[in-house]
Write a structure and sequence with these properties.
Protein name: Phosphorylase b kinase regulatory subunit
Organism: Drosophila mauritiana
Pathway: Glycan biosynthesis; glycogen metabolism
Shape: globular
Family: Belongs to the phosphorylase b kinase regulatory chain family.
Helix content: 40-55%
Keywords: Calmodulin-binding, Carbohydrate metabolism, Cell membrane, Glycogen metabolism, Lipoprotein, Membrane, Phosphoprotein, Prenylation
Radius of gyration: 36 Å
Oligomer: single chain
Largest sheet: 5 strands, mixed
Amino acid sequence: MRSRSNSGVRLDYYQRIVHRLILAHQEPVTGLFPASNVNSHAWIRDNVYCILAVWGLSMAYKKIADQDEDRAKCYELEQSCVKLMRGLLMAMMNQKDKVEKFKMTQSPYDSLHAKYSSKNGLPVVADNEWGHLQIDAVSLYLLILAQMTASGLQIVFSLDEVSFIQNLVFYIESAYSIPDYGIWERGDKTNHGEPELNASSIGMAKAALEAMNELDLFGARGGPASVIHVLADEAHKCQAVLQSMLPRESNSKELDSGLLCVIGFPAFAVDDAQLIHNTKDAILSRLQGKYGCKRFLRDGYRTPKEDPSRLYYERWELRMFENIECEWPLFYCYLILFHAFQSDKRAVEEYASRLEKIMVRSEDGILLVPESYAVPQDLVGFEYQKPGSQVREVVGRCPFLWGQSLFILGRLLQEGFLAVGELDPLNRRLGAQKKPDVVVQVVIIAEDNEIRDKLAEHDLHVQTIAEVAPIEVQPARVLSHLYTYLGRNRKLGLSGRKSRDVGILSTSKLYSLKDRIFAFTPQFADLSRFYIASDNELMIDILKGEINFLKSAWDLLGRPLVTLVLKRIHLDQDKIPLAMIQTMRKLKSGYINGTRVMLGSLKDFLNTSAITDLSFLGSTEDGYPDRLHPDVQTYLDEHLLRSFSNRSTMNLRGGQLRPRTLRRRMSCKGAIKKTRSINVDSDNLGMEGPSPLTERRLSSIVPPPWLQANKQSHVSVFATTPEEGPTSSPLSLGNELIRENIYPVDPHHSRSAIDRRSEFVRQQEMPKILIQRHRAETNFADTEVEELIAMLRETENLEEQGDILQYLVDTQGLDFNTAGLGFKNKSEENATPNANNAAGTGTDPDNAAHPSSATANSNNSHCIGNTSNISSSSSNISNHNNMSPHENNHDSSQSEGMLEEGRVVTVRDLLKGLYEKACQQKLWGLVRHTAGMLGKRVEDLAKAVTDLLVRQKQVTVGMPPNNEHTITAPLPEVELRQLIHDAYGDDESTAMLTQELMVYLAMFIRTEPQLFHEMLRLRVGLIIQVMAKELSRTLNCDGEAASEHLLNLSPFEMKNLLYHILSGKEFAVSSVARGNLSIVSCKSSRVSKKSQIGLGDPEGEDALIATIDDRQGQWLRRRRLDGALNRVPRDFYSRVWTVLEKCQGLAIEGRVLQQSLTQEMTPGELKFALEVETALNQIPQPEYRQLVVEALMVLTLVTEHNMVPSLGGVIYVEHLVHKANQLFLEDQRKVQGDATLCCAKIKDGKEQQQAASGMLLCGGAAYICQHLYDSAPSGSYGTMTYMSRAVALVLDCVPKHGEMECAIS
């Protein structure tokens, strides 16, 4: 016998056990483990867990290799791991088409299979015969692959395999929004095959994404091509959703022991130590038993009450499984590992001894971990009476390899053969430790020298885009395009990344590509396609939010770097807006909203920022890894030249700076070239200030006066926000109707254009009269339309134009051609040669010097001259009013027209022009309305709704009670827009406002989730109503005026008002110039819960009245807010469950919550809470809803203090509220309270009538006196007192006589 150290002997013992229990089952061909001797299916999840013991043992041998034999054993064990991991990889690669398809559809039928044949790795059940979509299984595979690779194993052999694994990363990237079947393959716990969002899947995906990021799959031998890239934002979204869900597992499972693998080994997915602690405690207190832990509450699997003949359960039978669920020793193995990683020796020993008691000894004395323990059939009755009292028996497989493998790992850790760091070479276990504060670096770059100089006046010194070279600054969408090349593989038919979203974490890094360095501006700075972006204050607010977000979310090497470009479109009347200057000064000071920041230049931050290498852009497949992929090369060449650089020379927007003649020449020259839209990404439109792009948009057609800057002598600079594409710019006009008014033409003679022009010039000398004419042949039934269009031309008030266009839309439709009202152009007009061009551009210099008096001659000729150039591609021309050379002609009230052959000018075109105008003048009410009529959608609407839904907040749109639509699952953008549209009918402004508010709600839930505690449904319609009510109260105006004020708030103020309403903070309204309102927080002590009116302070006596008035109405307001936001007291829903258990049902506004709900659902289940919520949502008035919630709370007190064994039949909750109201009014009469002025008056005939017609004198909702709504809950005249009395009177079960202890907490 050779001598062996003790540790060697002990390891050999474990090696024998691993060999007999685990490796003996490994299939020699595929390397996979069958589920059992009789079932040859191999599950991904079980296989990965099985091999962990083998991997652990191989590392233990590597450490003590004191003989060659040990090295050999170590190698054998390592190769078994590689064999298994490659077996699974081959099985999944056979389904590569599914991976590709799933990126698009995310359908459960296109998912990778959850199990394969262990004989040949092929599928064993059809797509629709099993709940295959289990994101946690694929994620676990990727996580362990990363850990094993980091420990030195080489599992991936070729670059094709690398691309496949990169695509698996895309497969799990959206785990936070994909409902799956989860770790127990069931989905909803009734097992009807409905997938749901599972915290365990999201946690595992987050861990896999983090572990895979920047990992070289070839280990130390790899190069840039074998590195996996993950967008940090995707992992962070998973983390945010996970944190909002824990300790809940899903909608139907309020708790699940499977979460142990997310909070501890192997995933370590939670960064918040307190949350880890809470989740573990919840599992131990509610699921732990003598024989392990239950998987989840009311889990019927393998219980004696389960009907083995069917897979699914009836909803009512779930209650039978309570307290007799099977207990799984597997979870003790997880707990041992959990505590070992926290180096809590005492807890490890405790669970180890518990586990040993319930393990089964085999014939040769090896301890086996059984799958689960069930209550024997004949002892079920006793177990129901006293849970946990009966002896259980083993059911299922023994040994259960998943558990056995984790048990062996635990043993290796306990005996010191392994250190925790060896099982976690990527150091994921350190995630929950405290990190140092993040410093956010901010770089501001000016678009051109002029803006740089303007900033320098304020002592803010920045560089221009040209000066930061060689670093190139690009918009985020360039990065998003580059990322679509990641993971492309022709041989495998894989297409790369599908999602176009790049978040702030991805744009806060620098990127190197060969010898170039790129900085990207954040995505929110790109959003110029929607009106929110033309509100500078809101953009600054979003920036502050993102900086704050970086502080908490950044965990990469280096510091985050936010790059912003200050452009022309940000200027307000050619000045830098004050809000921007103030923010930059704050940034310069080093702190902003509690976050440390550094303002500097790009080159200062090169060494401190995170830099990622975009090496995947090489064309490796063609054998030139060092060269860029040809498509990327062309994309970059086209884009980079155009995106931001060389702007200062193309200074078109600041038109007033150059002589008029030059501008005119530019607008004619190369008009055809300018109309071409080659190489322009549709996402580019309107995003970048003056550039060749803008030049392309210069149309040389004269705009009608209502599209010109209203009486401003300078050229207005404004951000266009076209929707999605070249054709959607303001007006591609050839408006013959308007032309008709300019040239009084004798219908019987057709004259050449030149004659007409001379007549036109003659007309200039006379006072201008608008003459309406039409050809004799055409009969217009409807002259009204013509008059309207004439009015439209005359009026300069944008609001009036809006009204006229609204009328035209209603009567004629969006596509009604206003040009059709004139007569058709004669063809010779098109033929007028370019001579006109010369005439147009060669105007005398005087003309240029006085913009407002450009002569008609030049206007006209210039216009016609261009027609020939333009008509060829007129669809892409847009007409930028600020470019037209005759800006202010309409001061002399003359109308200009478009002379362009065959162009149609629809009402839609006119609306677009109006929309842009309103954006520029910041008339927000009109902007919202026209945006609605044009059918625009908020940029990230679908993303915003998903953000709310995945954090378990349902959203409803529309005004309650009749047309409220609930959104419960993510929808595509177009469907959402349609749903919102249907909910509000013709009210375009509110439909737009709804979209806008959804985006703000999503911003808040990302940055301040605490605002949404105890709210399950966000009812946007009600929130809008409450916002209007609050404004009307604050401004002392009626409802109509208040909703007008509301719709005219700027996006920033709207977000601010929403914030004050969500947080319940006091606010006052102060008026700003131009009639805009501004919302400011109140901190004054005088105001308790009520806001001041900031529109001129009341003085003297009025002030006194204001203070008294302030005290009044505060409870009504609180109830109204809480009711509208659906806020409920803590643990409200689970307490309602206890009430429901003791009565036959609760009736609320005609909806009855049946007692049977308690059979189907557990108290903390989200599904139950949603049922209660749906019933409460039947109540249209928020303050009344809140009183109903209070009544329910009183009922819960009755049940919790066990005053009565049962509450009897169906309880009508509203009866309690109305009874309380009666009692309140009786008391009011006795004490001559305020209510005697309205509801408590002694009734006479007239009032009887009024009550019958449904109106209370005080205007209280639902026949409840306003003064009751406005009573505090506590106190002898408080609402709770009256509710309690009402409960005592209405419910028969409460004893009427005798002494009772009655303390209301």
